[in-house]
Each structure stands twice: as structure tokens, then as C-alpha cells.
Amino acid sequence: MRTTGCEDGGRGPASTGKxxxxxxxxxxxxxxxxxxxxxxxxxxxxxNLSFSVAPGRVTGFLGPNxxxxxxxxxxxxxxxxxxxxxxxIGGVSYAGISTPLTTVxxxxxxxxxxxxRSGRDHLRVLAATxxxxxxxxxxxxxxxGIPAAARQRAGGYSMGxxxxxxxxxxxxxxxxxxxxxxxxxxxxxxGIRWLRGFLRSLAAQGRTILVSSHMLQEVEQTVxxxxxISNGRLVRAGTIESLHGPVTALVRTSDPGRLxxxxxxxxxxxxxxxDGNSLSVQTDDLRLIGDVALRAxxxxxxLQPQASDLEELFFALTEGQNRNLGDGTAPQExxxxxxxxxxxxx
Length: 346
Ligand SMILES: Nc1ncnc2c1ncn2[C@@H]1O[C@H](COP(=O)(O)OP(=O)(O)OP(=O)(O)O)[C@@H](O)[C@H]1O
Prior knowledge:
This protein is of the alpha/beta class. The chain has 2 domains: 3-242 and 315-344, P-loop containing nucleotide triphosphate hydrolases (Rossmann fold); 246-305, Alpha-Beta Plaits (2-Layer Sandwich). Helix content is 29%, strand content 25%. The protein has helices spanning 69-76, 100-103, 119-130, 134-143, 159-171, 189-204, 216-219, 240-244, 256-265, 286-296, 310-318, and strands at residues 3-4, 31-40, 43-53, 58-62, 84-89, 104-107, 177-181, 208-213, 225-230, 233-239, 247-253, 269-272, 278-283, 300-305. The strands form 3 sheets. It has a 7-stranded mixed beta sheet with strand order 1-6-7-8-4-9-10, sandwiched between helices. A 4-stranded antiparallel beta sheet has the order 12-13-11-14, with helices on one face. A 3-stranded antiparallel beta sheet has the order 3-2-5, covered by helices on one side. Helix 6 (189-204) links the parallel strand 7 and strand 8. Helix 9 (256-265) packs across helix 10. Residues 31-256 form the ABC transporter domain.
């Protein structure tokens, strides 16, 4: 797994040992993406994107395959040079962070391990380069739940174990900001539940957690905030609750017409159901339906909120915008490493 935050051998950690000893940047590790654009040749992978990520919260960075998530994260981590705009962590670009090790930890791809090396040795090499004691390595293996596999060859790890090893590597320097690309990939339901608790506890310590995923469902119960992009552009940003909007409820009663009238007086919109004895009612406050019915002397036989399907909403928001599927417009692979991709800029 490509990790950052633990590969900066020269500077060493400002803190080791306990998780809660992380150092704070001036603004608490806020991530700011401002008017960010990245072109590969003629192809616009990230298109004038702006959003911010607050400390103390888990933020889901969502979009279909090819939306531009990884490119944005790589820019944020100083691995790709933007064509225009800025990406900062704690007010400065990654290159300008004086103690990157304790500021940012990241895990981008769960593939980049020396297959013959044990998980523990992989972490020890990273730790040694950065002057982190071995005790921290064992703590991290414990933290991510793979102490038993620590001495096995990483090449034999399952995808889920690789993800956990990548997380351990990202956490070695006790960073204030954690940037994870598709960390739930390859995790079984129990692993996803574990990841949820892990990320929530890190956010509760005041850390900034940015997690990408191409499936809203996968992170729905983990994240506080969402940033949804499609075709490199921002589609929606806000709290996970703000995605839901008003709820629609199916209401059965003895006299739907009279209930509709009473609801209208209370400024609540409803439409008659197809079966003649129900209403479809739109409201932010389901209790209001019961209150209105009680005042009108009408019995409620059924009140059933229609589950607002966030996944449906996600598809609707990003519908038909997957430029990597079927339309043949996906660009040719180009070298994107910062400092080497100048020729690709337009
Ligand atoms: N180095 C590169 N050279 C050319 N095109 C690239 C390069 N890196 C990314 N792209 C293209 O930019 C677009 C965005 O890719 P990116 O990996 O950022 O998307 P993503 O949202 O992370 O997708 P996924 O969920 O599939 O990982 C894609 O069409 C991709 O093919």
C-alpha cells in the first residue's frame, strides 16, 4: 500500500506512542480544496473542484469509478501536480507541511507491499526510516487487529488484511489527518463494521478523516459529511442528513380525503394513494401527521415512512456520468507523479 506520513525519513516524528499525542496544526487539520483542476492531455480529470473537510468528522469522498477521487487525493498528498487551483492541509500544501509524519497519514492502494516481507517487518522498515520505535509498530498492529498475522508474509495476506496493514502504516506517525482511498474495498461485513468504529473513534479524537468510496452504501453509516463528485466536478457537499431531504410517508386512514384537507390546513402536502384509502404525505416531521389526524378525529391505520434510499439518490446525482464506462472517452494512461507530469498539462 502506498502510504505517506511515514516515509519522511529526515524529519522524524514529533510524537510517538499514544494515539492521542498527535500534534495540532494551526487550524486543526482542515483540508481545503479550492478551484482545483487536473488535466491529463485533453482530458479533464478534476474540474474546478472546491470543498473543505472539517476536523473531528469523518467525511466521505464519493463518486462513481473514474470521477476523479484518487486524482484529487494524490494532488492533496503532493503526488500529482494540479493544473490549476490549490489543495491544502492545515492551510499549507503537503510539500509545505513542516512535520508531515505527524500531520498526515494516508493509504492509497492496498497492493504495494514487498510480498516476501512480514507485515511487522513492513511497518518496522517504515518506522525505522522515520525514527519511530518498534513498540509503536506493535501497538499499530494491535490497533488494526492483525497482531496474530504480524509475522506472516504480507504476500499471503487477504485484501482485508492488506487494508488493515495499510491503515497501521498510515497511523504510525500518529497523524492528525487521515486520507484513505477506498479503505472498505475487500473488507467483509465484519471488517466494514470494525472500520466504522475505528474511523469514528479517530474522528472523536479530533482528527480529520477523509475516506473515498464509489459506494455511498459502504460508508453511509460511517460518515458525518459527504462530498460527491462526478466527472471531476462537485455534485453535492454537506452532512449525510442533508442528503435525505423530506420524508414521504404512506398513511392509511378511514377518510383520506378529510385527512388531506386537514393536512392542507397545516401546510402539509399529500397526494391520494392508488388504492383509495391511503395518502402519500411529504413532511420533515412525521409526528405532525399523527397530531393533525388526532385533531381531526381520524384513526391512523398505518403510517409507514418510505425508506429514503440514499443509494438511489447517489445514482440519480451521478447518473449517466460515468465517463469510464462504455463511451470510449477514458484517456490514455499518463505519468502523473508530481514533477514528472508537467508535459501532460494543458
Ligand atoms: N495518470 C493518468 N493519466 C491519464 N489519465 C488518468 C491518470 N490518472 C487518472 N486518469 C483518468 O482520470 C479519471 C479520474 O481517475 P481517478 O482514478 O481519479 O478516478 P476515481 O474517482 O478515483 O475512480 P475509481 O473509483 O475507479 O478509483 C479517469 O478517467 C482516469 O482514467
